[in-house]
Amino acid sequence: MNTPDAPSEPTAAPSTSGARSVAGVCAKPAAGPAKAPAGAVTVDPAKTGDLAARTKSSPPNTTFWLKPGTHRLEADRYAQVIPKKGDRYLGAPGAVLDGRRTNQYAFGGTARDVTIRHLTVQNFVAPHDEGVVNHDSADGWVIEHATIQRNSGAGLMAGARQQVRASCLRDNGQYGMNAYKSGDTLKDLVVEGNEITGNNTGDWERRREGCGCTGGIKFWAVDGADIRGNWVHDNRGAGLWADTNNNDFRIEDNVLEDNDGAALMYETSYNAVIRKNTIRRNNWVEGRRYAESGDSFPFATVYLSESGGEPRVRARTDKIEIYGNVLEDNWSGITLWENADRFCNSPANTSSGDCTLLTRDTDRCVRPAIAKAPLYGDCRWKTQRVDIHDNRFTLDKSVVKCTAKCDRMAVLSNYGTYPKWSPYKGEKVAEAITRRQHNRWHDNVYVGPWQFVAHDPSQVLDFGQWQDTPYRQDTGSTLDPQAGD
User: Fold this and answer.
1) CA distances for 428 relative to 40, 69, 175, 329, 364, angstroms
2) What is the spatial distance between Cα 294 and Cα 30, in angstroms, rounded to a whole number?
3) Cα dist from 238 to 7, 241, 282, whole Å
4) Residue 386, burial from CB neighbour count under 10 angstroms (0-12, 13-18, 19+)
5) Whole-angstrom distance, CA of residue 322 vs CA of residue 334
6) 164-188 b/e with 16+ CB inside 10 Å = b?
7) Is 294 a residue whose pLDDT tops 50?
8) Distance between alpha carbon 281 and the CA centroid of its chain, in Å?
């Protein structure tokens, strides 16, 4: 994987076999205006700190035009641009804002409706879990035709109603974008037509094992997101990762390929449509690592963990529907998982302090109330109402270079044991996710030597067993086991 000072050189477009139409914007970024628009304030790269100073001295709703060249802030780690409401920043061809590995943040503050277009932002050193552009997660920002690269932390944070379009989020130390807003739900996010590549150069999951703190993009408590037409590739770790009380996502027409981990993780979240994506060659690094360690868990390229449809949470759908996707030569397919020991107020809940959208107060989830309705159901995130249909799954083990554990489709849980007062001990959750929570595969096409896991990791089934009693999965689906073997 590339170091922060050695940016990747992506091709101009994703490989074309079965691909949707997405732009390779990193190789060919759209050029900004060569002349200052009428009424714009011109910013001079020869004057260190000119951008921050002119922003401070200008009224709200000012347009700033950054001349060609490398613009710099004062040599203070906290020096940054603090926009006013409605400010617009336009970069001329070749305009770069460079943090010189000195400044932590490029654009911060709480002003709404700020626009940044045609500007490269690079070499800032935001701390872990913090971001360089829109550091304070202000609302209504528009980021278009921007290149945000080679920064520590996250290249970009997000606020409500933020739009990120046709931009290159490349080779950032932790995330391309960290869609997180402290103390608030982040609503109505649009991520469209971007190239998101080479992020997590800091390899944070290895530095902090189990941190769950990486991804091309990570989403936290986002209510309403349209993620479409992006090329998400070659990230170290997951491509897209929605974690903890996200809701109402549409993930469509993206190309997700060659990410070290899963292409898509949807964790402790609700209600989504995942459709018409091309997903290939993902999870080769992480899937292989777990398999070689002897782990029998079916780590997959689309991984739903404690996530499902919930009609009581308002959204454009009341289920998770996965359809019309092409998955080609990934390390395994789709896994639906529910950890029996993970629920509100359990020490096994890695989203510590958080509770479901149905029971906001974690302290309610205790004995004896949690042992019966409604808290028995509402204190846990459920993998339920997942409808997987009309997808094409192909696997050629000679391409993936694997002999075992790369060929799984799965719906399962663990045996509940913890904590002592848990009402979910034993096989209760495994029985529920497998047979009673309306998780269904049907009308799919499988090419290659696929196997299926149901109930728990020990139950590895062939296609006939998967379709037969008691699981009755993949009605109307076909399997050609010889192709690609």
Assistant:
1) 64, 63, 37, 34, 21
2) 47
3) 19, 6, 9
4) buried
5) 10
6) bbbbbbbbbbbbbbbbbbeeeebbb
7) yes
8) 17
In sequence order, the 6+-apart residues with CB closer than 8 A to the CB of 218 are 175, 177, 178, 179, 180, 241, 242, 243
pLDDT score of 450 = 97
* 452/409 Cα distance (integer angstroms): 5
Beta strand 460-461 pairing with 451-455: antiparallel
Residue-level pLDDT at 144:
98
Query: Could you tell me the pLDDT band of residue 14, with boundaries at 50, 70 and 90?
Result: low
Do 176 and 169 form a contact (C-beta atoms < 8 A)?
yes
DSSP string, 197-234: ES--TT-HHHHSTT----EEEEE-SEEEEEEES-EEES
- Interatomic CA distance for residues 30 and 357, integer angstroms: 41
Give the pairing type, strands 255-257 and 278-280: parallel
Residue 67's Cβ-count burial label (10 Å; 0-12, 13-18, 19+) is middle
CA-to-CA distance for 425 and 445, rounded, in angstroms?
36
Q: Rounded to the nearest 10 degrees, how much is the dihedral formed by the CA atoms of 117, 120, 124, 128?
A: 60
Place of tokens 């902090």: 208
Residue 467 DSSP symbol: H
Q: Mean pLDDT in the chain?
A: 94
Q: What does the block give as tokens for 319?
A: 């289920």
Cross-strand partners of 192: 165, 228
pTM of this structure: 0.94
- The secondary element (H helix, E strand) that includes residue 466 is helix 463-467
Extended strands (E) in 11-146: 41-43, 63-66, 69-72, 88-91, 95-98, 115-117, 120-122, 131-133, 142-144
- 320 in Cβ contact with 272 (< 8 Å): yes
Distance (Å) of CA 290 to CA 24, 261, 301, 415, 456: 32, 11, 13, 20, 17
